[in-house]
């Protein structure tokens, strides 16, 4: 038996919060009875659960990682007709969606799933799952400027949490440098804004790791399913980061 909002989210109806709203609005029935209480439990294998009169599909849970190319948008649709991530999902019949987002111009590791709980766990701001990026930036930031990123830097939406920052490569004529940065938050355009704040704007950005999951040599535009072990490790990591951060406060 599972909570109804969890079953609905896992069936890909909507996010867990939206599913709670559907329940409260009286749109959900279990075995023909309208259920409006959020704590209600049901058995997805036995009970007939409908939303707006339509039975939910009990989809197999799918976990994928993709190497998102630059110039692809992570939303479900784009009014400007730009390429979207689902254009790359040939052969995946489940309704998967991105776990968090990558900017249009950012490439690299993007997780996709139809498991709302998993997506929520990994993107929840309290869970502090590390994400590592390789940023090619204009010029060569001084070590003291990178220290600012390491300590946390003031952005318009507040201080950033401490980040891990390392030089990877420096152009001999000083035009650009390659820096790896691991952040524990997921604010909008965060890495770009952090480098802008030290006056070294990002030229190219690629996410190479999500938790301990590495992009490795997955070709641009391709995807692969995660192994059970990879899924479980990400879940454990999100749970343990939450505990660790809780103890620090
Ligand atoms: N930070 C950014 O600036 N862009 C992304 O796409 C991800 C993190």
Give a summary of the structure in a few sentences.
Strands 7, 8, 9, 10, 13, 14, 15, 16 and 17 form a 9-stranded mixed sheet that branches. This protein has 249 residues and is an alpha+beta fold. The protein has helices at residues 4-10, 16-24, 116-123, 143-151, 190-197, 228-248, and strands at residues 2-3, 28-30, 33-34, 41-42, 49-51, 54-55, 63-68, 97-98, 106-113, 131-138, 154-155, 158-159, 164-170, 176-183, 202-210, 213-214, 223-225.
Helix content: 10-25%
Report the sheet with the most strands, covering strand number, pairing sense and barrel closure: 9 strands, mixed
Please give the radius of gyration in angstroms: 20 Å
**Strand-residue fraction?**
25-35%
The CATH architecture of the largest domain comes to 2-Layer Sandwich
Report the mean per-residue pLDDT as an integer: 92
CATH topology (fold) name of the largest domain = Alpha-Beta Plaits
The N- to C-terminal Cα distance equals 35 Å
**Number of self-contained structural domains:** 3
Q: Which homologous superfamily in CATH is the superfamily of the largest domain?
A: Pseudouridine synthase I, catalytic domain, N-terminal subdomain
**Ligands:** uracil
The top level CATH class name of the largest domain: Alpha Beta
Please count the helical segments.
6
């Amino acid at each position: 038996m599972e909570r109804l909002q969890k079953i609905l989210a896992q069936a890909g109806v909507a996010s867990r919060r939206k599913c709670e709203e559907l329940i409260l609005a009286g749109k959900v029935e279990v075995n023909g009875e309208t259920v409006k209480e959020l704590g209600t439990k049901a058995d997805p294998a036995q009970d007939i659960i409908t939303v707006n009169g339509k039975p939910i599909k009990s989809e197999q849970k799918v976990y994928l990682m993709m190497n998102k190319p630059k110039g692809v948008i992570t939303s479900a649709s784009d009014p400007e007709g730009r390429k979207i991530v689902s254009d790359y999902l040939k052969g995946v019949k489940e309704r998967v969606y991105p776990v968090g987002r990558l900017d249009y111009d950012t490439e690299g590791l993007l997780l996709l799933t139809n498991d709302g709980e998993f997506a929520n766990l990994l993107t929840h701001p309290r869970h502090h799952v590390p994400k590592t990026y390789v940023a090619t930036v204009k010029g060569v930031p001084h070590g003291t400027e990178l220290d600012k990123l390491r300590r946390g830097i003031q952005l318009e939406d507040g201080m950033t949490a401490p980040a891990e920052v390392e030089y990877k490569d420096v152009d001999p004529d000083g035009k650009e440098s390659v820096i790896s940065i691991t952040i524990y938050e997921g604010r909008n355009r965060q890495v770009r804004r952090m480098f802008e704040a030290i006056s070294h704007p990002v030229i190219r950005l690629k996410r190479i790791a999500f938790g301990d999951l590495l992009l490795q040599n997955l070709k641009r535009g391709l995807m692969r399913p995660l192994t059970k072990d990879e899924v479980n490790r990400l879940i454990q990591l999100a749970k343990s980061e939450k505990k660790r951060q809780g103890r620090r406060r």
